[in-house]
Amino acid sequence: xxxxxxxxxxxxxxxxISEWYQDVxxxxxxxxxxxxRGCMIIRPYGYAIWENIQxxxxxxxxEDGVENAYFPLFIPMSLLAKxxxxxxxxxxxxxxxxxxxxxxxxxxxxxxxxxxxxMYKSFKKWISSYRDLPLKINQWCNVVRWEKRxxxxxxxxxxxxxxxxxxxxxxxxxxxxMFKALRWYQKIYxxxxxxxxxxxxxxxxxxxxxxxxxxxIEAVMPNGKSLQAATSHNLADNxxxxxxxxxxxxxxxxxxxxxxxxxxxxxxxxxxxxSHGDDSGLILPPQIAPVQVVILPVxxxxxxxxxxxxxxxxxxxxxxxxxxxxxxxDADETHSLGYKINAWELKGxxxxxxxxxxxxxxxxxxxxxxxxxxxxxxxxxxxxNAVKQALTDIQASLYARNKVLKxxxxxxxxxxxxxxxxxxxxxxxxxxxxxxxxxCEQQIKEETKATTRVLELEHIDQNEQEKxxxxxxxxxxxxxxxxxx
Amino acid sequence: xxxxxxxxxxxxxxxxISEWYQDVxxxxxxxxxxxxRGCMIIRPYGYAIWENIQxxxxxxxxEDGVENAYFPLFIPMSLLAKxxxxxxxxxxxxxxxxxxxxxxxxxxxxxxxxxxxxMYKSFKKWISSYRDLPLKINQWCNVVRWEKRxxxxxxxxxxxxxxxxxxxxxxxxxxxxMFKALRWYQKIYxxxxxxxxxxxxxxxxxxxxxxxxxxxIEAVMPNGKSLQAATSHNLADNxxxxxxxxxxxxxxxxxxxxxxxxxxxxxxxxxxxxSHGDDSGLILPPQIAPVQVVILPVxxxxxxxxxxxxxxxxxxxxxxxxxxxxxxxDADETHSLGYKINAWELKGxxxxxxxxxxxxxxxxxxxxxxxxxxxxxxxxxxxxNAVKQALTDIQASLYARNKVLKxxxxxxxxxxxxxxxxxxxxxxxxxxxxxxxxxCEQQIKEETKATTRVLELEHIDQNEQEKxxxxxxxxxxxxxxxxxx
Lengths: 485, 485
Description:
Two copies of one chain form a homodimer.
Chain A: H1 5-8, H2 17-27, E1 31-33, E2 40-42, H3 44-63, E3 67-68, E4 74-76, H4 77-80, H5 84-90, E5 95-100, E6 103-111, H6 116-126, E7 135-144, E8 158-168, H7 171-192, E9 198-201, E10 213-220, E11 226-236, H8 238-242, E12 247-248, E13 254-255, E14 258-265, H9 267-276, E15 293-297, H10 306-322, E16 327-329, H11 337-346, E17 351-355, H12 357-362, E18 364-369, E19 375-379, H13 383-408, E20 410-412, H14 416-425, E21 429-434, H15 438-448, E22 451-456, E23 466-467, E24 474-475, E25 477-482
Parallel strand pairs in A: 3-7, 15-16, 15-17, 20-21
Antiparallel strand pairs in A: 1-2, 4-6, 5-6, 7-8, 8-14, 9-10, 9-22, 10-11, 11-14, 12-13, 17-18, 18-19, 21-25, 22-25, 23-24
Helix pairs in contact in A: 3-7
């Protein structure tokens, strides 16, 4: 087991996860601070992860008939104010443009915190008949929510996201669409980011401002905190009524349609980093890693076989490239092998291949898995298949490890004393029977900083005769509580 | 020759190109107006064209080692003010955020009109050695420039673009990079958008605020106006000095590096629409068209063979899809064939295929080219190749037609009287010997609204002993003047 965090100047993850996180984000070249309060710079290595997420989701969206579009960055304040709950939810977080082209504006504009209001004004115009439905629009863009305390990727004033907005004839169709989006998010977290999040419904306190119901993906961070990692909302006809969106059915009758909205942001990258990394730096799951394999030729001082080693390394890199594996050959001779190993470990590249005189003689490639530092030997002749298998194993193993973590960091208790006791020992998710009352949740939050994260999908139909762990009122279902990012 | 603009409610292009443009943008579903002054909504059909442009350029950028990143939307005013010429150029167009999170900001932020200043602050931090160079960063994002008079796609307060920013050891390297970007732009216009723009250097009056030299792509619109369609700037060390970007060479000496920036925006879509459309609507070049081929089954009233026709149409659509052709099957039975033909013509789909009883009997498919309404017959057995060939022909023919237009709309004159005479008759590009003096250009602009568009690449080394067509001072090179969008 190699331990090289000292060399890299990384705070060990086990010692202080917040400092480790900040160190690794900066040193691995994922992001940087900017001169703008609360806004970060996403550097190429971090942006490449975002591009992989985009590419994956975008294909699924399009297969389902969701079309990309682009709506204005600015929203007139009067438009934002149309849905009262929505305005109340977002107004404390707004950035406001008051001047344009050297003049004070007659009406200030908000920089979009989300685009329901600006989009639905147009939807009213575009929809008249049932034949115009379903309407499924997605937008990849930046949004701004003024934050007091910010955190690279996890909470920034500006962030990148996608926001899907759909309109349907029936509420059942909207509900199905809301679940479809939720499943896309679950899939990208589980199969690409190798995380095993909780998936479920939000409480009344925690739902989206203006939604009927909000479902969410909650990722379990190694420090026991919850990261709200994507949300999908059933807006019912709340917005369509306010924005007067109407369709005529085949009998000539007018109705307000039913809507959904759903989003996933660059915050996902924060959850990815926090979850998988270790004292040597990042660990990226192969499915999402910008570089899946790095090849390091091991040049000898004597240099007898260096030309052959370099040529073989290039040939193997090309073979892997042809098989659609994202491979980098690092043949730089100005840095030592040790330096390069540290650097690529820090960047979390899932698989490292080394090729030196010994490997040449034995017709092998030495491999090291980033997730567990396991050493492997691959035959040069069948490298592509061996690498593919290793990447599949790493992906599976990271996911399995995260699933274990989730179980370890989830407790079940019966009463408030036990609840507080558990949370005093360590931040965890706690599953409890709860009454689903707003005021009760508010009180628990004030006393423990923990809030409901979700009612897990598996618990929605739970129907037991229990008492609320906090207030003692009747409760039929178990909810997950945790502190959140 | 079919003429169906009446049915579509389109103003004929020949009658009023501005009204035609607005009609076609709205009716073809490319874009829509919004409630936000000067900001447009890019609808899915328009956004799909932008995605095709993005995909094409992004591959070329990455092959060259340009990496995507993301910098903040907001720029502190003090940072924007660092390069004086740059500030002077952009300050009349700024949108300014004065409030955030319910409080007035200590320092207002500009919404980025371009990102030189916010990026170069970071470049200073990231660059220390010659080993850090070249640095090549690109960003796909929205920018805001407050416009008094706006025009869908062609001039909007907010628009989408890519901005490339590179840093080099030598000015020669920067110059080469600037040309490389310019060639990418030329290539996407010529080979994808089927336009034949002028390519050359900008005058001192017209260059980018802060650049040493600006090169530009100027597309010739059918009304004789020029559309600045992409720009590439050699920034020399203007910004690196102001932002104190320094690298240490291999001798340990410090230097300011040399920079470029280059951008292409959603304005390109405006040029595309204006150039190729006709009285029936849009005409999209196959290389960039979201839908390259539409298949219309021709159902008969009797309906005897409708099932077979539909099945065959589906089979042919699948064959084309497998060959990576972007095909849509419009088997909708609620609208007449004539209605559907009009709608797909309006949307500018390059090739329309029809399949009815007659075609079934003859084992054929009837095809109509959108560019010239030519009717073709394709054998069903070899449809993919025939379609590919037709698409290639349409692409080539649109490009050739635009090249002819460019020649027709370019005049060469000797003196100012002839210059004014030519421009009185019709808006055109005029090639003239000009002294390259700022004040002279300003005077011409005030008197004729025409400005220099470019010094064509082929004319940069021109070295004749002539007189300026306007002021009579000595001139060695011919420049292109025109009115611009």
